[in-house]
């Protein structure tokens, strides 16, 4: 093991550049999947004829498809039908598709956890279904969803490492380039990469705990 050679300044800067790409991909994917996940989860909860069933099929198909396959599809298969995405966009698209499906189930479960009587009471007080859902049910459900949603976001951040298969210049790809220079760099580089992932993910978990404690 050569810690001094592996963790020299140039290598650390290169890892930092890759980590910034990882955080960028994760952040955009988190924002998009959160929005889409809420929409899909709400549509399933609302049990709209036909639409809810179509959404359910799409969500279940996506949840039961390996993320790695979705990444391959967005980058290698879509160009075959005339849709060519560059590496960051392909990565964001794949992660958003997969995470949206996972989050939609969290949202649906959160909405279903709210007592049905609250919807009935809201409707009887004169609110429309949409008003009752957005003003009464959804705010309560979102508070209960915080821990599993943050957990899913942590998983998303870790899953960005799978994008190394399309040579996305993220943290894992840059780490590969460094340790390919010298076999003695492998363990030091892996330790550094693990620490970088841990710092961000542990920070997210602390935020989730604080938000959860405020609800108690």
Please explain how this structure is put together.
The chain crosses the membrane at residues 20-43, 55-77, 89-107, 183-204. It is a multi-pass membrane protein. Pfam families: BPD_transp_1. Keywords: Amino-acid transport, Cell membrane, Membrane, Transmembrane, Transmembrane helix, Transport. The chain is an all-alpha fold. The protein is built from nine helices and no strands. Helices cover 79% and strands 0% of the residues. Helix 8 packs antiparallel against helix 9. The protein is elongated. The N and C termini lie far apart (48 Å).
- Total DSSP helices: 9
Strands, count:
0
Q: Helicity level, as a percent range?
A: over 70%
Rg result: 21 Å
**CATH structural fold name:** MetI-like fold
| Quaternary structure type | single chain
Query: For the record, what CATH class applies?
Result: Mainly Alpha
Overall number of structural domains: 1
The arrangement of helices and strands along the chain is HHHHHHHHH
List low-pLDDT spans.
Answer: none
Biggest β-sheet: count, sense, barrel? none
Query: Structural class given helices, strands, pairing?
Result: mainly alpha
Strand content: under 5%
C-alpha geometry: elongated
């Amino acid at each position: 093991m050569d810690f001094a050679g592996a963790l020299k300044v140039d290598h650390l800067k290169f890892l930092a550049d890759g980590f910034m790409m990882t955080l960028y991909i994760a952040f955009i994917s988190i924002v998009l999947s959160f929005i889409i996940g809420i929409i899909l989860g709400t549509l399933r909860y609302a049990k709209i004829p036909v639409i809810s069933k179509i959404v359910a099929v799409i969500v279940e198909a996506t949840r039961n498809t390996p993320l790695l396959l979705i990444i391959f599809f967005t980058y290698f298969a879509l160009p075959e039908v005339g849709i060519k995405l560059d590496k960051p966009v392909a990565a964001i698209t794949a992660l958003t598709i997969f995470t949206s499906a996972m989050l939609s189930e969290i949202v649906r479960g959160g909405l279903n956890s709210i007592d049905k009587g609250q919807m009935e009471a809201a409707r009887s007080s004169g609110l429309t279904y949409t008003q009752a859902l957005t003003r009464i049910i959804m705010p309560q459900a979102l508070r209960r969803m915080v821990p599993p949603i943050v957990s899913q976001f942590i998983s998303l951040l870790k899953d960005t490492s799978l994008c190394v298969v399309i040579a996305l210049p993220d943290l894992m790809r840059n780490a590969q380039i460094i340790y390919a220079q010298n076999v003695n760099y492998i363990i030091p580089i892996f330790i550094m990469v693990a620490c970088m992932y841990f710092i961000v993910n542990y920070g997210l978990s602390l935020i989730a705990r604080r938000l959860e404690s405020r609800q108690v």
